[in-house]
Amino acid sequence: MVPSAGPPWRRLSERRTAPRTPDGVVRPARVYAGVVVATLTVLVAVAVVGAWAAQREGEAEGVVGTARRTEILADAVVEPALTDGVLTQEPRALERLDRSVREHVISDDVVRVKLWSADGTVLYSDEPALVGRRFGLDEEEREAIADGADGQGTGAEVSDLDAEENVYERGRGKLLEVYHPVRTPGGEVLLFETYAPYALVTDRGDEIWRGFTAIVVGSLVALMLLLLPVVWRLLDHLRRGRDERELLLRTALDASDAERRRIAATLHDGPVQELAATSFVVSSAARRAEASGDPDLADSLAGAADAVRAGIGGLRSLLVDIYPASLTGVGLGPALADLTVGLEAHGVTTSLDVDPAAAEALTAEQSRLVFQVARETLRNTTRHARAQAVSVTLGAADPDAAAELLVVDDGVGFDVDETLHRPAPGHFGVRTLVDAAAHQGAGLDVQTGSSGTTWRLTVPWS
């Protein structure tokens, strides 16, 4: 028989070049790596979001700080140095104001100072070329002068270095201009304006970001260090559970083999031997009856002897089905032949093709796996598939594998998902095959439908 080309193949176990960890087994290194990767991912995300938030908050705080400093300079330095002579550009008044500005205002944090009148005239600046020129004020600056009567009116904005009044600030980089109203002794409201490097604002944002990052990174690293022992304990519990499950599985398989061996031995040493002796006795009685001239009795006794011998043959076939010959004793080929003989006793036509080179290439454990898969699949064929014909082939069709086992029947097929995930009580044979193949790193595939089932076991090189 050849595999059907109809239904799709279902992969139950992935073949690997070396024995693999069964599905469901958690690798500690992978889990630890996952924890570390997750922590690093969170760190990166926090760093990106934190940098953006800190930059915004730092800029806002930097603008507020610069505005507050300008207010203090205006109230504590500039306003006390103002005289009404500044309005008429009196030299002594301008000199007095200039001296105070240069001593207490101009610094690395304030690179330009301007004093505006309500009509947009520059009454004073540390840049003499600007004094006396009129540029006009924008709406916010006019509102600041109007609000100056109430002691309010402070504002801040990024300097437009393309504007004509800022021609002498070009080349200093990005600047933040802050304005605040001041009063002359006569009550005239003027607008005091400072220009500060915008780096003061961004530096504050960087400072906040560094502090924020240190706290968050430290917290996440501490959390990761606390999680690792917890993860280790969980993995240890999982490993113990896996070991216990495998031990129970092996114990169940060994117990099943031991029970089959016990039953086979009991049948062989008891009923089979007794029936054999009975057949000899009945055959002897048939010969004596024929010799004594009683042909009817002789025929009856001969028929009984034939029936006893047929029963013995059936029992011997059952013995092979229950517990085939040992792999270590007769080898894989004869053991597979015993399995097919058991099917013939049930009226199933069988064919067996074993490549000796492929059988010899297998280790003892791999041979046991091949035998286990063949035995379980053939049992399913007998019990559930209602097949008329079965073929078993062991060869080396794949050069990357030591051997390939194909078991093909023409039965009714089965539901793979139902068998794997919702098996009937006590029916775990297929699940056991999947676990055994996965443990050996062997590939196990099935193709099943209404026209038959094909099992394919691919055993890797050891």
- Identify the overall geometry: rod-shaped
* Share of β-strand residues: 15-25%
> What is the CATH topology classification name of one domain?
Beta-Lactamase
**CATH-defined superfamily of one domain:** PAS domain
The stretches of 5 or more residues where confidence is low (pLDDT under 50) are 18-24
Account of the protein in words:
There is one protein chain. The protein is of the alpha+beta class and about 450 residues long. The protein has a domain at about 80-195: Beta-Lactamase (2-Layer Sandwich), CATH 3.30.450. Helix content is about 55%, strand content about 15%. The protein is built from eleven helices and eleven strands. The longest helix is centred in the middle third of the chain and has 93 residues, at about 200-290. The chain is rod-shaped and about 165 Å long. About 25% of the residues are buried. Residues about 20-25 have low confidence and may be disordered.
Top keywords for this entry?
462 residues, 11 helices, 56% helix, 5-stranded antiparallel sheet, Beta-Lactamase, alpha+beta, 6-stranded mixed sheet
